[in-house]
Design brief:
- The structure is a single chain.
- The chain is an alpha+beta fold.
- The chain has a single domain, classed as Triger factor/SurA peptide-binding fold (Orthogonal Bundle), CATH 1.10.4030.
- It has 8 helices and 4 strands, in the order βαββαααααααβ.
- A 4-stranded mixed beta sheet has the order 1-4-2-3.
- The longest helix is centred in the C-terminal third of the chain and has 23 residues.
- It starts with a strand and ends with a strand.
- The relative contact order is 0.15.
- About 20% of the residues have low confidence.
Length: about 220
């Protein structure tokens, strides 16, 4: 992935990157980009509209930003899982970048819209991660996520799962020879391992082709 870090090497690199960050922040002040959990309408911001930065921007993708609140909300809702024992924010950010790159590919093919019932069921799973509706409401308010955005994120989950099944399920099936060697009981395990390998290779390719700036 073309990951342009906020810190450069040497004085000249630091100066150039600092100017790039200033330009990005100024652009966000004039017309904020959609964030990972709070997409804005695609229309161009009217001249003269003032916006206030109230969140820390962690990364910039083409036409989109990822904020600290986005990462925290995605982790809290179980939409991404940072590696155990690692830095929660850094791991969550990496996972959320991967997720957004995959969703960008999914949206290119215009997948079927999930049913309202399927979205309701996915939202219900997210709600069950919290001990009470009050706890969930507090988290959503703290992270700046509305109920509408919650349903959008649930729908994206369903679209992504459907896309991954369609693209990788057949290719993940073990061969007859592999089943003869490992036994029928190992079929599901072999398929899951192969699918994970294929998905990881796909994500790696998306990262190589992506333009992502991770800010310090």
């Amino acid at each position: 992935m073309n990951m342009r870090q906020g810190k450069g090497q040497g004085g000249e690199g630091r100066g150039q990157n600092a100017r790039a960050v200033v330009v990005a922040v100024c652009a966000l002040l004039l017309c904020p980009l959609p964030s990972a959990l709070s997409p804005l309408p695609s229309a161009v911001c009217p001249v003269g509209v003032r916006a206030e930065i109230i969140d820390r921007v962690l990364a910039i993708l083409p036409g989109q930003i990822i904020t600290l609140s986005d990462v925290e909300a995605a982790i809290d809702l179980g939409l991404v899982e940072p590696p155990a024992g690692g830095d929660r924010v850094a791991g969550g950010l990496a996972a959320l970048i991967d997720r957004l790159l995959m969703l960008n590919e999914v949206h290119r093919v215009v997948p079927p819209e999930p049913t309202a019932a399927a979205i309701d069921a996915r939202v219900a799973l997210m709600r069950r991660r919290f001990s009470s509706p009050t706890e969930l409401s507090g988290m959503l308010a703290a992270r700046g996520v509305s109920e509408t955005i919650l349903r959008i994120y649930a729908a994206d989950d369903l679209r992504l799962a459907s896309y991954l099944d369609e693209r990788f399920s057949s290719a993940s099936q073990p061969t007859d020879e592999e089943i003869r060697q490992a036994g029928e009981a190992a079929r599901s395990k072999l398929a899951a391992e192969r699918r994970e390998t294929l998905v990881r290779a796909w994500i790696a390719d998306l990262r190589r082709r992506a333009e992502v700036t991770v800010l310090p």
